[in-house]
Each structure stands twice: as C-alpha cells, then as structure tokens.
From TrEMBL:
Pfam families membership: Ppx-GppA
Renumbered residue ranges of the record's region Disordered: 204-226
GO molecular function, one term: guanosine-5'-triphosphate,3'-diphosphate diphosphatase activity
Protein name, per record: Ppx/GppA phosphatase
Length: 226
C-alpha cells in the first residue's frame, strides 16, 4: 500500500454490523473511524432460513450508511464479510444482491472457522506479545468461536451454533427468564459444546486446557495445545 491510502473492514454480524476505516501511515494502519449499528439480524431469521422484511430492511439501511463512508476508499482496500446469520440463509443471494448494492462492495460469507481465524487475528494484534499460547472465545449473536493460537498465528479453531441473540429468542421468549428456562438453556448449550468444552488451568505458570478424553475434537485441540 502507498503512504496515506485508506483501507476498511466491514463485519456483518448476527447482532450488529461493524465497520472500521484506517489510514496507512509509516507501515501500519492507523484507525481513523469506527461505526457500529445494532441490526439483530439473527432475530429475523426463521427456522426455514428466511429473513423477515423488517430485519432485512434494517440491515440494508445500515449498509447504505456504511457505503457512504466508504466512498473515498479504493475497492481493493475494502473487505466485507458476513457471518453466522448469512451462513444460515436458505437463499443468501436474495439478500446479498441488494446488500452489495447498498454497500457498494462485494460481501463474502465466511465459514465459521474463517470467522474464528479473523477474530483471533483481531484480538492478537491488540494484545502484548506473549510466548504462551492463548485461548480466545468470542460469543456472537448467532455463534460462538473458540481459537487457540500463538502470537499472531491461530493454530486451531472451532465454531458452534450457540449465540446470544439466537439463544435469547429460543429459550427466553418474551424476554422472561425463569429457573426452568435457564436450566433448559444450559443443558442445550452444553450439548452443542460437548465437542468443544474447555476449562483453563495454569499448572507451573503455564496455560493449559483440560478436556474430555472421549471427544475426537478435544483430542485434536489438545494436540494443538501441547
């Protein structure tokens, strides 16, 4: 990139949309603008993978505002990604076509593991350098990602279908929390996480993961931690 050029990233999340704009200065991107709007797309997704009109329009209106801010950024310096809710759409192109027109940029629907990789890179760049491996957990609106990495390199990643918006709508309709609903939610979430259940221990000053030995996924992750 040339000195002074702009670059931007857009995240179409299940709960909110985010955009950051940076200027390339002295070899590094310097943040100059940050936008966030709550769209709660996951709340408009039905069991058949259709997005209702209200949440669809809310998302498109947000992208149109983001698109105005991107007017001065070269297209090759913009990356826009959609995450769990867009992955669940039965006919994603029916949303992507108007969404890309509103934003003025192509939108890529990323896999759960690619989403996890990007999350880890964002976190790692904001933390001091460390020789120890790190576990990053991101609880989103539609999914939760677990990533083990070292310095700036994600080594193992997992994405599961447990998110705050989707769980709230499924287990706490009307926003009412009861003891029975809470325990039902805990059991169902534990079932979804059964292949990715982790607790962090610190033996002898070193981070480690305790994991159930019966899980194939757990064994794969443990090899990445050893």
């Amino acid at each position: 990139m040339q000195e002074g050029e702009l670059l931007a990233a857009v995240d179409l999340g299940s709960n909110s949309f985010h955009m950051i704009v940076a200027r390339y200065e002295h070899g590094v991107p310097r943040l100059i603008d940050r936008l966030r709007e709550t769209t709660r797309m996951a709340a408009g997704l039905d069991v058949n993978g259709s997005l209702d009109a209200e949440h669809r329009q809310r998302a498109l209106d947000c992208l149109a505002r983001f698109g105005q801010r991107l007017a001065g950024v070269a297209p090759q310096h913009v990356r826009a990604v959609g995450t769990n809710t867009l992955r669940q759409l039965l006919h994603p192109q029916e949303f992507l076509r108007p969404a890309e027109r509103a934003l003025g940029q192509p939108i890529e629907i990323v896999s759960g593991r690619e989403e996890a990789r990007l999350i880890f890179l964002g976190v790692a760049h904001g933390l001091p350098s460390s020789r120890q491996r790190r576990l990053v957990v991101d609880i989103g609106g539609g999914s939760t990602e677990f990533i083990i990495g070292h310095q700036l390199e994600p080594l193992h990643a997992e994405s599961i279908q447990v998110g705050c918006v989707a769980s709230s709508l499924r287990f706490f309709p009307g926003g009412k929390i009861t003891r029975k609903r809470w325990h039902t939610r805990a059991r169902k979430s534990a079932c979804c996480c059964s292949n990715s259940r982790w607790t962090i221990a610190k033996p002898a000053g070193r981070n480690a993961l305790d994991r159930p030995a019966r899980s194939r996924s757990s064994r794969r992750w443990s090899r990445g931690w050893d």
